[in-house]
Amino acid sequence: MQITRLQLRRLRRFDELDFLPGPGLNLIIGDNGAGKTSVLEAMHLMAYGRSFRGRVRDGLIQAGAPALEVFVEWQERTTGRVRRGGLRHSGQAWEGRLDGAPVAQLSDLCAALAVVTFEPGSHALITGAAEHRRRYLDWGLFHVEQAFLPYWRRYARALRQRNALLKAGGGDGQLDAWDRELADAGEAIARHRDAYLDALAPAVDAMAAELAPMLGGVRLEHAPGWRRESMPLADALLLARDRDRQTGYTSVGPHRADWRIAFGALPGREALSRGQAKLTALAALLAQAAHYARVRGEWPVVALDDLASELDARHRLRVLRHLASNGAQVFVTGTEAPPLDDLPAPPLLFHVEQGRLSPVR
């Protein structure tokens, strides 16, 4: 997958931007605060429906503007098909188009463009709240397993209805109906997540051995959101019903799921250092990108924000060589161009200053 054009309007420092990146490594350099990260944010927004630096209404839209606009044109390398997506977001409401047609759900737009992002907050994938790890699983499944999205939508709808009934004091008959829907979709989600983690495990282990060998071999452990080893989800929902009535929300199910990486060289739950957490998160993200490539036949776009501050020179060069050797399109931001040797092709260099991005000759 290759982004061939990125256009922005009213996004942070950029009044307008028309960016034509290259197919390989694209280095975007500039001073701190110049807007380098905003370019990656725009790609991430189109691919995830949100920024990796907070909500759209919290500073992403340029001051005084009613909305921001992002347009992305990309090519699917396996088919040669050129696709186009556009998003207008006011912070409260959004409008999207994909290949010339309006989209009814933001997830439809996000499922079309695949971007894997590593940025200064990515260590939350390992050390942060469970929601970060659920998003990681679900992003991968949206892109490699077509059957997953309908189950996810069914579960989300049933969860909203059950929670509304719990808060309104709904009767057992009403709750029984939504429990059946929740259990059916939830069991399917858990099975898909199990299978996805099993498929990812060898790649995560290989990448972790490359980036952080001091941690030993790794394994991925899934906690599906209820005591699945002892009861089906339908029984867990019924058992939790009285407690859920008191709290007004559903306390068991895949929306409460989590997963963790267990390390061979770390006994029990010995804490990772911040640097180890960053390397582990990067290993998980690169493994996810590699798994996407195996299933879909092409790499997703890879965006690496402020890479020099996150990785030392040795790890940085190792990662970029790995991605370049696999033909991935990569975007890297930094305050200066790092020394890059032995890459299959020279990178393209772009400079950001005062809301403008220009190629460096």
UniProtKB/TrEMBL annotation:
Pfam families: SMC_N (PF02463). Gene3D superfamilies: P-loop containing nucleotide triphosphate hydrolases (3.40.50.300), RecF/RecN/SMC, N-terminal domain (1.20.1050.90). One of its GO terms (molecular function) is ATP binding. Coiled coil: none annotated. ATP binds at residues 30-37. Signal peptide: none annotated. Keywords: ATP-binding, Cytoplasm, DNA damage, DNA repair, DNA replication, DNA-binding, Nucleotide-binding, SOS response. GO terms for biological process: DNA replication; DNA synthesis involved in DNA repair; double-strand break repair; SOS response. It is found in: Cytoplasm. One of its GO terms (cellular component) is cytoplasm. Residues 3-337 form the RecF/RecN/SMC N-terminal domain. The RecF protein is involved in DNA metabolism; it is required for DNA replication and normal SOS inducibility. RecF binds preferentially to single-stranded, linear DNA. It also seems to bind ATP. Belongs to the RecF family. This is DNA replication and repair protein RecF.
